[in-house]
Design goal:
Distance between the termini: 79 Å
Number of helices: 6
Largest sheet: none
Radius of gyration: 29 Å
Strand content: under 5%
Shape: flat
Order of helices and strands: HHHHHH
Number of strands: 0
CATH architecture of one domain: Up-down Bundle
Low-confidence stretches: none
Mean pLDDT: 84
Structural class: mainly alpha
CATH topology of one domain: Four Helix Bundle (Hemerythrin (Met), subunit A)
CATH class of one domain: Mainly Alpha
């Protein structure tokens, strides 16, 4: 019998977890995306008449020679639009307060949410009316230019990628 000492097991090789490395890289890439979203949200234009390619302020940017006439449309719709925005915010506030109140009932909440819906519908209707009036100011050639701009925009690879394809 030999008293040879047993050989120790080989030291474990350090393993690199590729999944961890990939996850770290994705997280590092995600930081600028989140920062861009936050910056865009902070600089979002909330003026009346903005928001969308057919919005009056977008039309002013596209056709500066019509700025005066389109601004008159915005000015004509602004008081009603502000009133409807206030009503929409108030309807939401009322629904929120009802949700936390001891007098909450399902029927009362349904009525409060219906008031939110009605306020939002009225606001959307006024916004569409302002958009329609702003487009009516444009000449046929300018309207054709807007349509062509939208067509070019919708031909981009990003819009085509997310468009539903017929089966």
């Amino acid at each position: 019998m030999t008293d040879a000492a047993p050989t120790p097991p080989p030291a474990p090789r350090p393993r690199r977890s590729w999944l961890l490395i990939v996850s770290l890289c994705l997280n590092i890439a995600l930081v600028p995306v989140i920062a861009a979203v936050v910056v865009r949200a902070m600089h979002r234009d909330v003026q009346i008449g903005s928001g969308g390619i057919l919005a009056p302020r977008s039309l002013i940017a596209a056709f500066p020679n019509e700025a005066g006439r389109i601004q008159k449309v915005i000015d004509a719709h602004t008081p009603k639009n502000r009133e409807l925005r206030r009503a929409s915010v108030q309807a939401r506030r009322d629904a929120w307060l009802l949700l936390g109140s001891p007098g909450y009932t399902a029927d009362a909440m349904a009525k409060a949410l219906e008031a939110v819906h009605a306020a939002d519908t009225a606001l959307e209707g006024e916004s569409v009316s302002m958009m329609s009036d702003g487009l009516a100011v444009l000449t046929p050639g300018e309207r054709a230019a807007v349509v062509e701009k939208i067509r070019r925009r919708n031909r981009s690879w990003l819009f085509r990628m997310f468009r539903p394809h017929p089966g």
